[in-house]
Structure formats: C-alpha cells, structure tokens
Design a protein that fits this description.
single chain; 95 residues; mainly beta; Folate-binding fold; five-stranded antiparallel β-sheet; two-stranded antiparallel ribbon; binds zinc ion
C-alpha cells in the first residue's frame, strides 16, 4: 500500500504532494537550561513507532498540518491542523 496522508482540507492524498517538516517538538520555557535547548535543537527521537510530525501540503491547500504516523508501517493514523479542528481519521471508521 502506498504512503498516503489524509489532509483535513483536501482528503486522502499521496505523500508525494507533501513536504516533511520534522517531528513536532515542544519548545523549552524561557529560562530553561542549556541541556533543554540542546535537546530541543539537536536531539531527535526518530522513534520506532508512533510519532507526530509536521507536513506541508504543497501541491494542495498549502497548509501545514500535523500527522500521527506509525514509522514501522509508514502509515499515517490521523492528521489535523495545529488548532485541533477538522480532524480526519483513517481506517477505523469511527468519528
Ligand atoms: Zn490539503
């Protein structure tokens, strides 16, 4: 099965329409120590399993979205805009 991403705006599309934007990270609070900034800037978990990532739909609605992807199966479980609205679910048939 090809790698597809369910854009909340456009529906399910080929991953070739998107640009990968890296893992979703939490920026350290003001006053955080150097170690916290080092990890934020340079350390990536590159997780084997479920991780949340940024994707830009460059050949579609041209919006950034976040996708929850299983890196083992290279399958996007769900995708949504960062404001949390307009979620699209794949596969389960549940809403
Ligand atoms: Zn789109």
């Amino acid at each position: 099965m090809s790698f597809r991403i369910p854009c909340p705006q456009c529906g399910e599309r080929s991953a070739y329409e998107f640009r990968f934007g890296g893992e979703v990270l939490t920026r350290p609070q003001a006053g955080a120590d150097d170690d916290a900034w080092y990890h934020y800037s340079f350390v990536r978990r590159n997780e084997m399993g479920i991780q949340t990532e940024w994707w830009y739909h460059r050949f579609g609605c041209r919006q950034w979205l976040q996708a929850v992807r299983d890196t083992r199966a290279n399958r996007v479980i769900r995708a949504y805009f960062p404001d949390g609205k307009e979620q699209t679910d794949l596969g389960t048939g549940e809403s």
